[in-house]
Amino acid sequence: MPRRPTFLIKPTLAAALITLADLLFYDTEEHLGAGLGLFALAWVLAAAIANTAIWRDPRARIAAGLAAAFGLLLVETFTLLGWLLFCTALAVAVLSPRAGRADDAWRWTQRLVFQGVAGLIAPAVDWMILRKARRRAPPRRLLATLGLLAVPVLGGLVFFVLFAFANPLISQALARLRIPPPDFGRGVFWLVPLIPIWGALRPRFMRRPLTLPAPRGRPTPGVSAASVTLSLVVFNALFAGQNALDLAFLWSGAPLPDGVTLAQYAHRGAYPLIVTALLAGLFVLVALRPGSETAARPLVRGLVIVWIAQNLFLVASTILRTLDYVEAYSLTRLRIAALAWMVLVAVGLILICWRLLKSRSASWLINANVLCAGLVLTLASVVDEGALAAAWNVRHAREVGGRGAELDFCYLAKLGDSALLPLLHLEQAKVPAAFRDQAAYVRANAMEELRLEQSHWRSWTWRGQRRLDRARGLLAAHPTPPPLPGYRDCTAQLMPVSKTAGVSAAPAAPLTPPPAD
User: Fold this and answer.
1) Which of 229, 241, 400, 435 is most solvent-facing, going by the fewest CB within 10 Å?
2) CB distance 317 to 250 below 8 Å
């Protein structure tokens, strides 16, 4: 079992981590690369050394392992979501040894928020505590330390001065020695990582978080069994009408009325219907709490099951609407996130219904939803949504015989190296020469930006290097002509000479994506 470290080990570890952060991140204009992952792994190791209770607590060990896994993911590539998940896992690891075994996600949320807020002033508070402790310490310890160092320091200084006079090499080296001026910007930079680092080495624990209110058998004020029953009947009738329209036009493929296109029908109702499903779940939570008289009635329970089933069909219709809209236009990162959110809403509705039928507690419902959300967020931090969107858009583009819209080179350029390989496959396919030239131009820009990032050790990432090696291999196996010289607009099309007359030589106009609603 690791030996318990003294207090002085924590400032030493903090200084080492700040030095590492200075080496990796200070005074650089490069993008964050694998260095952030290496820093994260070093941070996990330092937290485990400073808090030896992590080794003895199973939950803390699991959280520390997850933090290390997210650190490796940051070595693979940097994502803001991956960094936030790493910080959350590390905070859970350092707080777990002092937390109860049966704590739910609601209490953990309070602890994490308290840790973040209290950590802002933690270094200053610990510094004041240390100064008070030094004032209480007997002065003889300081005198003993001075007596111990007096002879070695003074004697060594005398001999060093004599050697400097006797040896011209030492005197010349001292003459060339220049003490750099104080760098206040660097000092401010050191304070930025100090706060979270010190918070992980000396975590602040919230002893008494707020608990969820205990379930009571009394009905919610203003909500009677009769009103809930009548509400469920009305809600089921309204939802049945909406679902019938979706069955008639969305699922069956029947022609829509004049003036309404399928894209308009799909896009207009996608997000409002999700809000509708969320409100339905909120109604069930408030009006039908487990153990209440209303929730125990068989008629009410049957109506709730039918209503939840209709809500699930509504969410499925919303997903189909979004997919139809994607097919009519294009796939974007935001639309991928929207689809994932819709799936989470459906899972949440199922959990709410299960809680009602099995009389589960509110803590169970919160924990189950947090677990599902955590799995989805973890998957989102691993998968490159930009690469998925680029591959789908290239494969379904109208120019290559697909059923989608025309390929949006503006958005592909915005995706950067995520679109590199799909563009390269498009460039090597049998497509018109002008279309291939557009793809070659955007691909060449993305590849050059990636090459520059990978050439610097601070912005290097494992995913970027694999992607660059793959692109170079494809080009070596099937060479393609370079893009034609000239001025380009957002769509990577060559501009006519008449439009470029009098324009100074400059890079092409910034490539900006269309609205990704």
Assistant:
1) 241
2) yes
